[in-house]
Amino acid sequence: MKTWLAAAALAFAMTATPAAAQDKVRVVATFSIIADFARNVGGDAVEVSELVGPDSDAHVYAPSPADAKRLADAKVVLMNGLGFEGWLERLVKASGTKAAVAVTTKGITPRRMQDDGHGHSHGRSDPHAWQSVANARVYVTNIRDALAAADPNRKATYDANAAAYLAKLDALEAEVKATVATIPAERRRIITTHDSFGYFAAAYGVSFIAPQGVSTEAEVSARDLAKIIRQVKAQKIPAVFMENVTDPRLMKRIAEETGAKIGGRLYSDALSAADGPAASYLDMMRHNLKELRGALMS
To answer: What is d(CA 254, CA 211) in angstroms, rounded to the nearest whole number?
Structure first.
């Protein structure tokens, strides 16, 4: 009898740990910024992975069979929407996943785009809504609600985690507004690689001019480039900035032709690696703010 009990206890012990590990909600985010939001809201209750990792460009991403497997195993899939992940619908269908798919921009009023002639895939909505901290709050509440719907027993945990993170976003919003206010209005004009900072511009009063359209897939014509160079010279735009997901050669050429200062690297569509300056959304926004102010005030 003692031998049988010991064997049963051992068998229970061997199965208990995997069961506890499996108790975490498997969440797949389409890219690194949404994954960071999800980790803050989900905490220890979730296991989050992202399809498009740090320093990678979701605009031109090509899903792999391994991505389909991850979706098939997920309980919740978090996407940006607004046309950002043109490849996701096919991937969801191919995976056969039964996961709940949540659009994290639900409730955000999209910034409307003019037709830039580049034929980018986003249509007329700018998908880069996270560049406004007020919009980031909407992402977080949508993620909170998606996790609570999938895992109602831990709703209180998700509510508490979201509330703590929303307080951090409130502090960040105040910091961004205060920092931009220190930059003279006439100097708040910069060039970036592609048009991913429109929500930041609208929220905080900084003008961004981009040679590319909203998507990094868009090609820049010689005519467009000449127009940008004339504009930089005419408006005496003080700085041009690289982005972490695009080719820097275009910006270097504009700087050489105009004499504008090359600022630091901005993080737009993806976070940095864990050892980089923008490993989280909070770090990314503070890093970009520091780079902008440093270039525009010098």
So the answer is: 10
Q: Is there a shared CATH topology between the 10-172 domain and the 177-296 domain?
A: yes
Two tokens, residue 293 = 């102010």
Q: Report residue 219's pLDDT band, with 50, 70 and 90 as the boundaries.
A: low
Third-level CATH fold of 10-172: Rossmann fold (3.40.50)
Looking at this protein, which amino acid is placed at residue 265?
R
- The domain locations on the chain are 10-172, 177-296
Distance separating alpha carbons of residues 157 and 44, to the nearest angstrom:
10
CATH, domain range 177-296 = 3.40.50.1980
Q: For residue 256, what are the contacts with CB-CB under 8 A and spacing of at least 6?
A: none
Contacts 24+ apart (CB under 8 A), 282-289: 282/168, 282/169, 282/172, 284/33, 285/133, 285/172, 285/176, 286/172, 286/175, 289/175, 289/176, 289/179, 289/180
pTM for this entry: 0.82
CA-to-CA dists, residue 160 to 144, 167, 188, 219, angstroms? 10, 11, 37, 45
Q: What is the pLDDT of residues 59-105, one digit of tens each?
A: 889 999 999 999 999 999 999 999 999 999 999 999 999 999 999 99
pLDDT of residue 12: 37
Torsion of CA 237, 242, 248, 250, to 10 degrees: -30
Query: 162 Cβ partners below 8 Å, 6+ apart?
Result: 40, 41, 140, 141, 143, 144
Instruction: Look at residues 127, 85, 81, 131 and name the one whose alpha carbon lies nearest to residue 102.
Output: 81
CA dist 188 and 186 (Å) reads 6
User: How is residue 254 written in tokens?
Assistant: 């504009």
Cα–Cα distance for residue pair 76/96, rounded to 1 Å: 13
